[in-house]
Amino acid sequence: MSDQKMGTHYVREVCEIFRNVAAKSPFPDVQERLNKIADELEPIATKLYFKTQKGTEDMKELAEQAQDLDAKLSACKESGEADAVCNPFFVELEKIIKHVKTMKVRMT
Known about the structure:
Largest sheet: none
Low-confidence stretches: none
Order of helices and strands: HHHHHH
Helix content: over 70%
Number of strands: 0
Mean pLDDT: 82
Structural class: mainly alpha
Distance between the termini: 29 Å
Strand content: under 5%
């Protein structure tokens, strides 16, 4: 079996990072959004990879960006600041989730 990670591995990695960061975050609204995104991503991980042509590349990039999310959030002093740090992830992932949920697969 290959050691190469696939898009689904990166999705699960992002979900794990979000849950860990949410558990440490002192801001309830940020905790809620991180957990909500993780809850939405996990069930569609395989579809996400299947339905997006560049699923692996997109998820690898997001996983790499999420690696330092904990450090960035730890430096935040107020909720608005923490939300500004997380918002790029939220916007990108919500767009991807919507795409996966509404896309039709055509069998030929």
